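Long-time lurker, finally posting.

We've been working with ADP-heptose:LPS heptosyltransferase (Streptomyces syringium) and I want a structural starting point before designing mutants. I don't trust myself to interpret raw outputs, so I'm hoping someone here can both generate the structure tokens and explain anything notable. Sequence follows.
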Amino acid sequence: MTPQHPPNPPQPHGPRLLALRALGLGDLLTAVPALRALRRAHPGHTLVLAAPARLAQAAAATAAVDQLLPAQAPGRAVPARLDWTGPPPDLAVDLHGNGPPSHLLLHALGPRRLYAYAHPGTPHLPGPAWQEDEHERARWCRLLRWYGTPADPADLRIPPPEGPSPAPGAIVIHPGADAPARRWPPGRFATVARALHRAGHRVVLTAGAGEGPLAHRIAEEAGLPATAVLGGTTDLPFPRLAALVAHARAVLVGDTGLAHLATALDTPSVVLFGPVAPRLWGPPQGPRHHVLWHPGPGDPARPGDAHGPAPDPRLLRITCQEVLTALDCLPAPHRAAETVS
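Top reply, 14 upvotes:
Generated this for you. Predicted structure of ADP-heptose:LPS heptosyltransferase:
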């Protein structure tokens, strides 16, 4: 679905809508359908997103957010405060979680209306019942629909970036994740990268801040030059990262933010899952995105600790040959210039 800009630009001194989603890149991208629904429903409002400052460019790229209010907390906690100034929000929407900390943080601003899931700790706030086993994109769209705002979980694309890719047509491998439980072993990434390189593909590795040593170790083991690693000391600037993914042949990644960026840009991907089921955080079903996950008999949707200190057993069941086969089965990108000769 093509993103739609609001028919009337928001007025700088008009009503403001505040959405709280003070989490990571993947969390922001899974909230795009909800943010876009809010944008359509309130075209005259200035839509303010409370999120970490590092996501300012990503938030702007959604074509739904007008301003970013810097807000963050360690891990997935709720920020202690919001530096909101001026009149209270016309509408505040809790897209962060389900519980008194985020509810009360927004309620303290005195919004005229507040959308949130129901919770016994905040009985004064109406809302739908929280469902644990629900995809993240669907969760926030269901919240808005309960309040009468149409929202489509499939409305998740973001416009492609205008800048050039630093490695057009490459297969992009992102070996990092913010917890060891979701990191496939480096040696397996190296085996896959080496096989792709020998088969004639251009391979690049992306690394977030502090992930440089991991990516360079994999590149060296795979026989790739040091220049094949992008980022590492700091995060890649979002426009550069988005251009890389948008013009990639394919993306190989674990259950992390870059997987959601590939989905948002409609780039073919192979996504490796471990402690959390893809039905909660995975890409849409279809040939452009291949999910690999090996749960045990009777495993629930969250069979492991997504923030655990060691690779999840379900992740370790994924073999290098499975990954190579999945990559080989992906369709070509939509943009002809991205194909590898």
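Before you design anything, note these points.
The first strand starts at residue 16 and ends at 20.
Confidence is low (pLDDT under 50) at residues 1-8, 336-341.
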